[in-house]
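Sat 14:20. Reprocessing the chain from the morning session after the first attempt stalled halfway. Input below, unchanged.
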Amino acid sequence: SRDDLYAAWRRIGAVESVEQLSSLLVARLLLEPRIGAMAASHHKARDIESLQKCLIRLSRSFIRNQCKPVSEEDAEFRRIIAGGTDNGILVSIMDQFTAANAIFFEHLGQLEESKKDSLFADYVEIMNAFKRRDSNATALAFETNLRHQHDVVRLLVDAKIPGLNDMHHLTTQLPIPPGL
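Finished this time. C-alpha cells:
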C-alpha cells in the first residue's frame, strides 16, 4: 500500500509524503550532478584508485544480483566522488541521498539483464568522465544515471513488483521536471 511505501522511506529517514518524494527527486537532480562536476575538477589521484576498486566491487555485485552489496557500493561510489569536493557538507548531502537508494536496489533481481547493464554502464560513464576531470560530462553522466533509476522505478511499478504496487500513483505524479 501507499502507507507501506512511506513506511519504507521513513525507515531510512528520507521521505514521509508524496511532496517529500517529489522534493527528494528534484533535490537529487539539482545537486548530485553539480557535486559530481565540482569533484571532477578537484579530485585527487587516490580518489580515482578508490573509485576503480569500488566499480569492480559494484560490477561483481550487479553480476551476482546482490541487492544489499549493490546498494552499499552505490553509496560508496557516490561518497568517493563527493569526497573529491573536499567539502564535508556535500559528502553528508550525498550520504542522505544514497540512503534513499536502498529501496531502489532491493528489486534489482527483478530487472531484465539489459536494464541492469544500462544502469551499470552509467557508473562507468561517471567514472570515466570523473577520471578525465570533465566536469560537464560528469554532471551529464550523473543526470543520466538518476533518470535511468527513475525509469526503472516506473518499470518495477508497472510490473506489479510486490511492495511497489501503489507506487505507480506516486511515480506518475513525479515526472522529472524539464531542464533538470
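The chain is about 75% helix and 0% strand.
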